[in-house]
Amino acid sequence: MIRLRPRHLIYPLLIVALGAAAQAETAARRDLSGSDHSRVRQVTRPTTDFTRAETFEAMSAGAATTTVLRDPFSQASANMPLERGQDFKLGNALFQKLWVSSPSSTQASDGLGPLYNARSCQSCHIKDGRGRPPEGGEDAVSMVLRLARPARTPEEIKATGEHGVVNFPDATYGRQLQNLAVPGLKAEGRLAVTYAEQTVTLADGETVSLRKPGYAIADPADGPTGVDTTLSGRIAQPTLGLGLIKAIAEEDILEIADRQSAANDGISGKPAWVRDHLTGALVLGRFGWKAQNGSVRDQAADAFSNDIGISTPDAPNAYGDCTKAESDCLSLPSGVQKRLGDVEAPSPVLDLVTFYTENLAVPARRNVDGAEVLRGKQRFYEAGCASCHVPKFVTRRDAKDALHSFQLIWPYSDFLLHDMGEGLADGQQVGEATGREWRTQPLWGLGLTQAVNGNGFYLHDGRARSLTEAILWHGGEAQGARDAFAALQKSDRQALLSFLSSL
């Protein structure tokens, strides 16, 4: 059990711990010179002054930050040179491209499914933002039901231990439920979600209703899932600043994990090691709800395969998530055109979509100097939120793409896996992540969710209908921060929420 310390004790301990991390995190970085070390140490030191905004704090993604208000999640990195803008536009077109079933006269666009969840990337990542759970009996649009079972044999246990696989699919329905199908084929079923409401009373007497989801497959095409198959709802994540996240030094993230472990205060994030699908190398996972992918390209290839049923060089199965049990699916024509290559989306398609999603800009913050925002920032630190939602990093000097090199960024995440308690547990192991563990979600762009997507659903399954609900669902390692928030008076809670809304 995590014991909640009084605020006047938590905050000095937090600053000491973060300060130690800031001093140590640059020591092991091989990309920095001596003068760079000094600069990085200075700018990443946690603030103790909440009377004013920090230098460059409004520019969440450094020089890549966009200040464009129209479609703020869909703008190119502000430091992108004109000659690279064409690739960004082409990637955007492919991100929005509607794939069609085979055979089709538009041979460069066929190959959809045969079983699928969406016809385009944009269908789930609406305006490049987050998805939402289905409401009022509608079909799932930007949410999927992930299916997985645990390892059953010594060979399967070895495969997961060696990071050969992250888990095992359901024998009948594969890795996720496909609720759509091409003409002539029956979909696997419909995602059915029900909610049980529970009331939480805060310290000042205010009550908040939380809803806990339950999942089932309605109208299953081929009978029930396996007895040990777990069902986990996942909404689409925003696609902001992904290239900058990839450019964070691995040493910095591992140093945070070491610091958290050494603090012995109940918070101990762990790195998610995964296989790069292209090279086979063991790399630090930092993308996906459970950090199951180590690169943006891996994330894109996985989505093409499982969400749309489109094969790429990195995931070359033209039948996507169809299983051996789904013979009707496997009997249909694919969209592979030999004159165009061995897959439905050849390398240029995957390359351009990857470039596009790596360079979607993070919007600048609003009202960063506002008195209530600054007070809320202080409460955020005092509650211990910044222990996992680490405010800032300086990206690698030798980043693969110069657009992401040596930028001061403010993602508010440590990109580690944390036990979030039984309330958020889905029982589904994904690589290093247990059924109770989730990657710390970056918070940049959080305050524009409602404006961009027209909804305010949060957490991995969209159960939270407000930021207050999202915080109150935190448990496990985050229980202390959650309890500190619940103990605040309403004016202080509102200030903290105003800070989050400024991100």
Features:
12% strand, 503 residues, alpha+beta, two-stranded antiparallel ribbon
Work out the number of β strands: 12
- Main β-sheet, spatial strand arrangement: 1-3
How do the SSEs run, as a string of H and E? Answer: HHHEHEHEEEEHHEEHHHHEEEEHHHH
Q: Indicate the percent of residues in helices.
A: 25-40%
Cα shape: globular
Which structural class do the helices and strands define?
alpha+beta
Number of domains: 2
Low-confidence stretches: 1-27
Estimate what percentage of residues fall within beta strands: 5-15%
What does this protein look like?
The structure is a single chain. This protein is an alpha+beta fold. The protein has two domains: 235 residues, no CATH class; 220 residues, no CATH class. Helices cover 29% and strands 12% of the residues. The protein has 15 helices and twelve strands. A two-stranded antiparallel sheet has the order 1-3. Strands 2-6 form a two-stranded antiparallel sheet. Strands 4-5 form a two-stranded antiparallel ribbon. β4 and β5 form a beta hairpin. α1 packs antiparallel against α7, α8 packs across α10 and α11 crosses α15. The protein is globular and about 65 Å long. The N terminus is likely disordered.
Write the layout of secondary structure elements.
Layout: H1 7-25, H2 34-43, H3 82-96, E1 115-116, H4 121-124, E2 143-148, H5 154-161, E3 180-181, E4 190-201, E5 207-218, E6 230-235, H6 242-246, H7 250-263, E7 272-275, E8 282-285, H8 296-308, H9 327-330, H10 347-358, H11 371-382, E9 393-394, E10 408-409, E11 417-419, E12 437-439, H12 449-453, H13 467-472, H14 479-487, H15 490-501
Antiparallel strand pairs: 1-3, 2-6, 4-5, 7-8, 9-10, 11-12
Helix pairs in contact: 1-7, 3-10, 8-10, 11-15
